[in-house]
Amino acid sequence: MPTVTADRLTQIGTALLQAAGATDDEARAVAIGCVDANLAGHDSHGVIAIPTYIDRIKAGHIMPGAPWTIVQESPTTTVIDGHWGFGFHVNAKAMALTIEKARTANVAACTVFRQSHVGRLAAYPLMAMRQGMIAIATADSGRSPKHVAPFGGREARLGTNPLAIAVPSDLEAPFYLDMATSAVAAGKIQLAVARGEQIPQGWIIDAEGRHTTDPTQYRKGGALLPLGGSEGYKGSGLAAMVEVLCGLLTGLGFGVEPTGRHNDGVFMAVFNVAAFRPLQQFKREVAEFAHYLKSTPPSDGSSGVFYPGELESIRAQQRRRDGIAIENATWDNFKALAAEYNLASTLDLA
Ligand SMILES: NC(=O)c1ccc[n+]([C@@H]2O[C@H](COP(=O)([O-])OP(=O)(O)OC[C@H]3O[C@@H](n4cnc5c(N)ncnc54)[C@H](O)[C@@H]3O)[C@@H](O)[C@H]2O)c1
User: Fold this and answer.
1) CA of 177 to the centre of ligand 1 (A)
2) Considering the entire predicted model, what is its pTM?
3) What is the pLDDT of residue 82?
4) Inter-CA distances, 62 with 37, 120, 121, 161, Å
5) Which residue puts its alpha carbon closest to atom 32 of ligand 1?
6) 33, 61, 58: which is closest to 48 by C-alpha?
7) Ligand 1 neighbourhood includes 180 CB (under 6 angstroms)
8) Which helix (DSSP H) or strand (DSSP E) does residue 285 occupy?
9) Which atom of ligand 1 is nearest to the CA of 188?
10) How far is the CA of 180 from the centre of ligand 1 (A)?
């Protein structure tokens, strides 16, 4: 597998997306968002997805240069139509507006619909965290095909419906949770297939409802399991609530629509910390809390406690230093796209 620097990957992703029709702003937002996911260690949401996004442009599912419109708003709420634009771009604009509303009103929320994949969900609450605010974001994939079997069921009826919460603190590595409500993100199954690896027991069931470690069974009628193993009813319940916020509150609805156009419905809420506690004091206490969690002796076989978001920052430091390993299949896809767009010599992907 080639190992590539974050800057070079961003340059490659931006160039390919621009060649496929994305505007400069869109191409950079998507490429930076994907590379940030690779840096955080979530390769399933990294540059592996760029060829898929380009396929969706070609299929007319993603509209480069799409307008971004407010359908309904109040001083604290906004409903945003992304007109099938790039989720990375549409959703960042939605979060920027919600932060501005929370700066005035202390609490603000928005829903976003008709946008493509938003990628690593943490990216948006982290924008608010940098402004001294707490933010929560949830996402579902609209009425495109489902991935997760509800607890006790055999067929997929839910999305991987992620949830991300970010909190300002004095910590060097940000304190944020960013997780699918399924056992893992669906992209991790694709990644295991691309790398020819087995997956842990408890991630998926096959078409007959049996547990399996073979990731290829997922595409043969299998389904992801909800978060929580034998207590998967809690993950299943969380996923259902995310779908209510992102599918029903946005008006996208539930279930599968046969044309299967990918559509990330998103709900986001921002809380200005200063309206509740002095910001500096709160940030110090969150850092103290993280150190308190970490100060417990490790349990048997564990390497100790990491607070939410800490591992992602450790990985990002390593990957900025050592580069990001890109699976051969993804690199081959980049080479084919570079050839298609006459960028082979400019991008030098040999
Ligand atoms: N846009 C979408 O439609 C979509 C859908 C699903 C998932 N996703 C993204 O996929 C990514 C991966 O999600 P996931 O659930 O597979 O990731 P995951 O299982 O690695 O869980 C990630 C969360 O758990 C924490 N964590 C992980 N290991 C830990 C440990 N040992 N100790 C303490 N905390 C730990 C991380 O800090 C992070 O907050 C996320 O970025 C998510 O937003 C996006």
Assistant:
1) 7
2) 0.95
3) 98
4) 20, 18, 19, 20
5) 306
6) 33
7) yes
8) helix 279-294
9) 16
10) 6
Q: Helix (H, G, I), strand (E, B), or coil: what is residue 282? A: helix
**Amino acid identity, residue 264?**
D
Q: What is the pLDDT of residues 229-267, one digit of tens each?
A: 889 999 999 999 999 999 999 999 999 987 767 889 999
CB contact set of 197 (below 8 Å; sequence gap of 6+): 215
Q: What's the CA-to-centroid distance between 119 and ligand 1, angstroms?
A: 12
Closest among 327, 334, 342 to 12, alpha carbons compared: 334
**315 CB contacts (<8 Å, ≥6 apart)?**
39, 40, 41
Has residue 194 got a pLDDT over 90?
no
pLDDT for 333-343, tens place per residue?
Answer: 999 999 999 99
Match 């390993």 to its residue by tokens. Answer: 325
Contact by Cβ (8 Å): 61, 116? yes
Pocket lining: 45 vs ligand 1, CB cutoff 6 Å: yes
For residue 160, the CA-to-ligand 1 centroid distance in Å is: 11
Q: Which domains does the chain have, with CATH numbers?
A: 1-65+313-350 (1.10.1530.10), 66-180+229-308 (3.30.1370.60), 184-224 (3.30.60.50)
Are 269 and 135 contacting, i.e. CB atoms less than 8 angstroms apart? Answer: yes
For 156: left if phi > 0, alpha if psi spans -120 to 50, otherwise beta; the answer is beta
